[in-house]
Specification:
- The protein has 152 residues and is α+β, with helices and mostly antiparallel strands.
- It is 39% helix and 39% strand.
- The chain folds into 2 domains: 6-31; 36-151, Nuclear Transport Factor 2, Chain: A, CATH 3.10.450.50.
- The protein has a 6-stranded mixed β-sheet with strand order 4-3-8-7-6-5. Strands 1-2 form a two-stranded antiparallel ribbon.
Amino acid sequence: MDLWSSDGMRTVVSMGRLLVLIGLVAVPVWGQEAKDDARGRLVSTPEQVVQEQLEAYNRHDLEGFLRTYAPEVKVFDFPDTLRFSGQAAMRERYGKLFESNPELRAEIDSRIVQGDHVIDHERVSLGGGRRLTAVAIYRVEGGKIIAVWFLR
């Protein structure tokens, strides 16, 4: 078939539309895959890191939870009140929280991922019928959470 004939042009245009459609559908999926860092190590996407953090939180797995955070992590009350920083402070606070609240569990009502930020609307059960909701904004770099802002 001659590409310049009317049938050939329809084929080219149809193939072009297909490629555009594939690109529109596939790019967001491709953009969410884990990537290699400068040293060739596989780095999880921000959403994967935050999900891993949530799962460790719900298991009360302190070590798994802390592995998702950078050593110099900063935790804020939104917009800019620093609550604490560093993994040592996080270990102390969350270790006590997990120990004193065996029914502690968080569920995500909704999640937004925008670049290196993940925003979760969370429903937290403390046990004994106590519940709270919060919005957490996580900033992830190099496969680790480097900052969290809580809106209560």
